[in-house]
Protein backbone atom coordinates (compact mmCIF):
# COMPACT_ATOMS: atom_id res chain seq x y z
CA UNK A 1 0.00 0.00 0.00
CA UNK A 2 1.20 3.52 -0.80
CA UNK A 3 2.07 6.11 1.85
CA UNK A 4 -1.17 7.87 0.95
CA UNK A 5 -3.21 4.70 1.42
CA UNK A 6 -1.52 3.82 4.70
CA UNK A 7 -2.12 7.33 6.03
CA UNK A 8 -5.81 7.31 5.07
CA UNK A 9 -6.31 3.86 6.56
CA UNK A 10 -4.64 4.89 9.83
CA UNK A 11 -6.85 7.98 10.11
CA UNK A 12 -10.00 5.93 9.43
CA UNK A 13 -8.97 3.48 12.13
CA UNK A 14 -9.09 6.08 14.90
CA UNK A 15 -12.71 7.11 14.21
CA UNK A 16 -15.91 5.31 15.19
CA UNK A 17 -19.32 5.91 13.55
CA UNK A 18 -20.55 7.75 16.64
CA UNK A 19 -17.59 10.14 16.39
CA UNK A 20 -18.85 11.46 13.05
CA UNK A 21 -22.60 11.26 13.61
CA UNK A 22 -23.25 7.92 11.90
CA UNK A 23 -25.43 5.21 13.35
CA UNK A 24 -23.66 2.01 14.31
CA UNK A 25 -25.90 -0.95 13.59
CA UNK A 26 -23.78 -3.25 15.71
CA UNK A 27 -22.08 -6.42 14.65
CA UNK A 28 -18.42 -7.18 14.58
CA UNK A 29 -16.26 -4.97 12.39
CA UNK A 30 -13.50 -6.64 10.44
CA UNK A 31 -11.26 -3.58 10.73
CA UNK A 32 -11.04 -0.92 13.45
CA UNK A 33 -12.66 2.42 12.87
CA UNK A 34 -14.75 3.63 9.96
CA UNK A 35 -15.39 1.48 6.93
CA UNK A 36 -14.36 2.86 3.56
CA UNK A 37 -18.04 3.03 2.58
CA UNK A 38 -18.79 5.20 5.60
CA UNK A 39 -15.88 7.51 4.89
CA UNK A 40 -16.92 7.88 1.25
CA UNK A 41 -20.45 8.80 2.38
CA UNK A 42 -19.12 11.46 4.75
CA UNK A 43 -16.81 12.92 2.09
CA UNK A 44 -19.52 12.94 -0.59
CA UNK A 45 -17.62 10.75 -3.07
CA UNK A 46 -18.39 7.36 -4.53
CA UNK A 47 -17.13 4.28 -2.74
CA UNK A 48 -15.23 3.20 -5.86
CA UNK A 49 -13.51 6.58 -6.09
CA UNK A 50 -12.46 6.56 -2.44
CA UNK A 51 -11.16 2.99 -2.75
CA UNK A 52 -9.01 4.06 -5.71
CA UNK A 53 -7.73 7.01 -3.67
CA UNK A 54 -6.80 4.78 -0.73
CA UNK A 55 -5.07 2.41 -3.14
CA UNK A 56 -2.87 5.25 -4.32
CA UNK A 57 -4.79 6.42 -7.37
CA UNK A 58 -4.54 10.13 -6.64
CA UNK A 59 -2.98 11.43 -9.85
CA UNK A 60 -5.96 13.59 -10.78
CA UNK A 61 -7.65 14.08 -7.43
CA UNK A 62 -8.74 17.65 -6.86
CA UNK A 63 -7.97 19.82 -3.88
CA UNK A 64 -11.71 20.03 -3.20
CA UNK A 65 -12.03 16.25 -2.82
CA UNK A 66 -8.96 16.10 -0.60
CA UNK A 67 -10.48 18.84 1.54
CA UNK A 68 -13.71 16.86 1.82
CA UNK A 69 -11.84 13.71 2.82
CA UNK A 70 -9.84 15.72 5.32
CA UNK A 71 -12.99 17.10 6.92
CA UNK A 72 -14.53 13.64 7.08
CA UNK A 73 -11.45 12.27 8.81
CA UNK A 74 -11.30 15.21 11.25
CA UNK A 75 -7.69 15.94 10.30
CA UNK A 76 -5.80 18.67 12.12
CA UNK A 77 -3.95 21.35 10.10
CA UNK A 78 -0.66 19.42 9.94
CA UNK A 79 -2.44 16.22 8.88
CA UNK A 80 -4.49 18.16 6.32
CA UNK A 81 -1.34 19.57 4.73
CA UNK A 82 0.28 16.12 4.85
CA UNK A 83 -2.67 14.59 2.97
CA UNK A 84 -2.31 17.14 0.18
CA UNK A 85 1.45 16.56 -0.05
CA UNK A 86 1.03 12.78 -0.24
CA UNK A 87 -1.57 13.11 -2.97
CA UNK A 88 0.49 15.60 -4.99
CA UNK A 89 4.15 15.21 -3.97
CA UNK A 90 6.53 18.00 -4.91
CA UNK A 91 10.00 17.08 -6.10
CA UNK A 92 12.69 19.28 -4.62
CA UNK A 93 16.21 19.87 -5.96
CA UNK A 94 18.77 17.79 -4.07
CA UNK A 95 21.64 19.68 -2.40
CA UNK A 96 25.11 18.47 -3.26
CA UNK A 97 27.16 17.25 -0.30
CA UNK A 98 26.63 17.78 3.44
CA UNK A 99 24.83 20.85 4.83
CA UNK A 100 26.91 24.03 4.67
CA UNK A 101 27.09 26.27 7.71
CA UNK A 102 27.81 29.96 7.31
CA UNK A 103 30.33 31.26 9.84
CA UNK A 104 27.96 33.95 11.21
CA UNK A 105 25.51 31.24 12.26
CA UNK A 106 28.17 29.53 14.37
CA UNK A 107 29.16 32.90 15.80
CA UNK A 108 25.51 33.47 16.73
CA UNK A 109 25.36 30.11 18.54
CA UNK A 110 28.57 30.79 20.42
CA UNK A 111 27.30 34.20 21.54
CA UNK A 112 24.41 32.49 23.37
CA UNK A 113 26.22 31.49 26.53
CA UNK A 114 23.43 30.86 29.05
CA UNK A 115 20.94 28.77 27.06
CA UNK A 116 21.09 25.81 24.68
CA UNK A 117 20.96 26.67 20.98
CA UNK A 118 21.66 24.57 17.91
CA UNK A 119 20.99 24.27 14.17
CA UNK A 120 19.54 21.16 12.58
CA UNK A 121 19.27 19.88 9.03
CA UNK A 122 16.18 18.43 7.42
CA UNK A 123 16.30 15.01 9.09
CA UNK A 124 17.06 16.12 12.69
CA UNK A 125 20.82 16.01 12.03
CA UNK A 126 22.61 18.43 14.34
CA UNK A 127 24.78 20.65 12.16
CA UNK A 128 26.06 23.06 14.82
CA UNK A 129 25.56 23.62 18.55
CA UNK A 130 26.77 25.73 21.45
CA UNK A 131 28.33 24.44 24.67
CA UNK A 132 25.17 24.44 26.74
CA UNK A 133 23.42 22.21 24.20
CA UNK A 134 26.07 19.58 24.92
CA UNK A 135 25.93 20.19 28.67
CA UNK A 136 22.14 20.00 28.92
CA UNK A 137 21.17 17.35 26.37
CA UNK A 138 23.89 15.17 24.84
CA UNK A 139 27.67 15.49 24.54
CA UNK A 140 27.49 15.66 20.76
CA UNK A 141 31.25 15.85 20.35
CA UNK A 142 31.40 12.28 21.71
CA UNK A 143 28.71 11.00 19.32
CA UNK A 144 29.82 9.40 16.01
CA UNK A 145 28.98 11.83 13.18
CA UNK A 146 26.65 9.28 11.57
CA UNK A 147 24.50 9.20 14.71
CA UNK A 148 24.57 12.92 15.43
CA UNK A 149 20.82 13.30 14.97
CA UNK A 150 18.17 13.90 17.61
CA UNK A 151 16.31 10.90 16.24
CA UNK A 152 19.25 8.62 17.04
CA UNK A 153 19.62 10.12 20.50
CA UNK A 154 15.93 9.92 21.40
CA UNK A 155 15.34 6.37 20.21
CA UNK A 156 18.71 4.65 20.64
CA UNK A 157 20.59 6.44 23.43
CA UNK A 158 19.52 4.97 26.79
CA UNK A 159 21.38 7.67 28.72
CA UNK A 160 19.48 10.40 26.92
CA UNK A 161 16.21 8.54 27.40
CA UNK A 162 16.90 8.47 31.15
CA UNK A 163 17.62 12.21 31.06
CA UNK A 164 14.25 12.80 29.40
CA UNK A 165 12.57 10.80 32.16
CA UNK A 166 8.78 10.78 32.13
CA UNK A 167 8.81 13.14 29.15
CA UNK A 168 10.47 10.59 26.83
CA UNK A 169 7.24 9.30 25.26
CA UNK A 170 6.11 12.83 24.42
CA UNK A 171 9.47 13.74 22.90
CA UNK A 172 9.68 10.45 20.97
CA UNK A 173 6.22 10.83 19.49
CA UNK A 174 6.92 14.47 18.57
CA UNK A 175 10.12 13.37 16.83
CA UNK A 176 8.41 10.62 14.83
CA UNK A 177 5.56 12.95 13.88
CA UNK A 178 8.09 15.46 12.58
CA UNK A 179 9.88 12.80 10.51
CA UNK A 180 6.50 11.89 8.96
CA UNK A 181 5.82 15.56 8.31
CA UNK A 182 9.19 15.94 6.64
CA UNK A 183 8.80 12.76 4.57
CA UNK A 184 5.65 14.25 3.08
CA UNK A 185 7.44 17.50 2.32
CA UNK A 186 10.29 15.78 0.50
CA UNK A 187 9.57 12.16 -0.51
CA UNK A 188 12.89 12.01 -2.38
CA UNK A 189 15.04 12.73 0.69
CA UNK A 190 17.24 9.62 0.65
CA UNK A 191 19.01 10.59 3.88
CA UNK A 192 15.67 10.76 5.67
CA UNK A 193 14.56 7.43 4.20
CA UNK A 194 17.80 5.81 5.32
CA UNK A 195 17.40 7.25 8.83
CA UNK A 196 13.85 5.91 9.15
CA UNK A 197 14.90 2.48 7.84
CA UNK A 198 17.75 2.30 10.35
CA UNK A 199 15.57 3.33 13.28
CA UNK A 200 12.84 0.85 12.34
CA UNK A 201 15.43 -1.91 12.26
CA UNK A 202 17.12 -0.97 15.54
CA UNK A 203 14.17 0.16 17.64
CA UNK A 204 10.86 -1.72 17.82
CA UNK A 205 9.40 1.21 19.75
CA UNK A 206 10.23 3.54 16.87
CA UNK A 207 8.71 1.05 14.42
CA UNK A 208 5.41 1.04 16.30
CA UNK A 209 5.33 4.83 16.46
CA UNK A 210 6.16 5.14 12.77
CA UNK A 211 3.33 2.74 11.87
CA UNK A 212 0.84 4.99 13.69
CA UNK A 213 1.30 7.74 11.03
CA UNK A 214 1.25 10.66 13.44
CA UNK A 215 2.14 13.91 11.65
CA UNK A 216 3.28 17.18 13.16
CA UNK A 217 5.42 20.20 12.40
CA UNK A 218 7.87 21.32 15.08
CA UNK A 219 7.34 24.98 15.94
CA UNK A 220 7.61 25.49 19.69
CA UNK A 221 7.25 23.59 22.93
CA UNK A 222 8.90 22.78 26.20
CA UNK A 223 11.84 20.54 27.08
CA UNK A 224 11.97 18.87 30.48
CA UNK A 225 15.30 17.35 31.44
CA UNK A 226 16.30 15.41 34.56
CA UNK A 227 19.92 16.54 34.63
CA UNK A 228 22.34 14.45 36.74
CA UNK A 229 24.18 17.53 38.04
CA UNK A 230 21.60 20.29 38.41
CA UNK A 231 18.27 18.44 38.63
CA UNK A 232 15.06 19.17 36.73
CA UNK A 233 15.29 21.71 33.91
CA UNK A 234 12.17 23.20 32.33
CA UNK A 235 13.09 24.96 29.09
CA UNK A 236 10.54 26.43 26.67
CA UNK A 237 11.86 26.43 23.10
CA UNK A 238 11.14 28.21 19.83
CA UNK A 239 12.17 27.26 16.32
CA UNK A 240 13.37 29.77 13.72
CA UNK A 241 13.50 28.81 10.07
CA UNK A 242 16.49 29.78 7.96
CA UNK A 243 15.07 30.65 4.53
CA UNK A 244 18.42 31.83 3.23
CA UNK A 245 20.04 28.46 3.98
CA UNK A 246 18.21 25.73 2.02
CA UNK A 247 20.58 23.03 3.31
CA UNK A 248 19.45 23.75 6.86
CA UNK A 249 16.09 23.34 8.55
CA UNK A 250 15.96 25.59 11.62
CA UNK A 251 17.62 27.24 14.57
CA UNK A 252 16.42 25.93 17.93
CA UNK A 253 16.52 28.31 20.88
CA UNK A 254 15.79 27.47 24.52
CA UNK A 255 15.28 29.89 27.40
CA UNK A 256 14.39 29.27 31.03
CA UNK A 257 11.83 31.46 32.74
CA UNK A 258 13.60 34.46 34.29
CA UNK A 259 14.32 33.96 37.97
CA UNK A 260 13.40 30.28 37.88
CA UNK A 261 15.46 27.39 39.28
CA UNK A 262 16.06 26.31 35.67
CA UNK A 263 17.65 29.66 34.84
CA UNK A 264 19.88 29.37 37.88
CA UNK A 265 20.83 25.82 36.85
CA UNK A 266 21.74 26.96 33.34
CA UNK A 267 24.03 29.64 34.75
CA UNK A 268 25.67 27.01 36.95
CA UNK A 269 26.22 24.71 33.97
CA UNK A 270 27.58 27.59 31.90
CA UNK A 271 30.13 28.35 34.62
CA UNK A 272 31.25 24.77 35.27
CA UNK A 273 30.75 22.74 32.09
CA UNK A 274 33.73 21.79 29.93
CA UNK A 275 31.62 20.41 27.08
CA UNK A 276 32.59 21.30 23.52
CA UNK A 277 30.59 23.24 20.99
CA UNK A 278 30.73 22.41 17.28
CA UNK A 279 33.16 25.33 16.87
CA UNK A 280 35.47 23.79 19.49
CA UNK A 281 35.28 20.47 17.68
CA UNK A 282 36.19 22.04 14.35
CA UNK A 283 39.15 24.08 15.66
TrEMBL record:
<feature type="domain" description="HTH cro/C1-type">
    <location>
        <begin position="33"/>
        <end position="80"/>
    </location>
</feature>
<dbReference type="Pfam" id="PF17765">
    <property type="entry name" value="MLTR_LBD"/>
</dbReference>
<protein>
    <recommendedName>
        <fullName>HTH cro/C1-type domain-containing protein</fullName>
    </recommendedName>
</protein>
<dbReference type="Pfam" id="PF13560">
    <property type="entry name" value="HTH_31"/>
</dbReference>
<dbReference type="InterPro" id="IPR001387">
    <property type="entry name" value="Cro/C1-type_HTH"/>
</dbReference>
<dbReference type="GO" id="GO:0003677">
    <property type="term" value="F:DNA binding"/>
</dbReference>
<dbReference type="InterPro" id="IPR041413">
    <property type="entry name" value="MLTR_LBD"/>
</dbReference>
<dbReference type="InterPro" id="IPR010982">
    <property type="entry name" value="Lambda_DNA-bd_dom_sf"/>
</dbReference>
Amino acid sequence: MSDLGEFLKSRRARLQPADVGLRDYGGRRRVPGLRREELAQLAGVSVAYYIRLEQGGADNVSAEILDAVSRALRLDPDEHAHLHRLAHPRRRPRPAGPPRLRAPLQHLLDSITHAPAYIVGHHTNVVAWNRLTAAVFVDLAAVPPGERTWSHQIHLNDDYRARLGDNWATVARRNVAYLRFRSGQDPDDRDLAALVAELRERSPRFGRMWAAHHVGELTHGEARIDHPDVGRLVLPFETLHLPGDPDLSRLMLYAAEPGSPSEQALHELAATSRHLSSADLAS
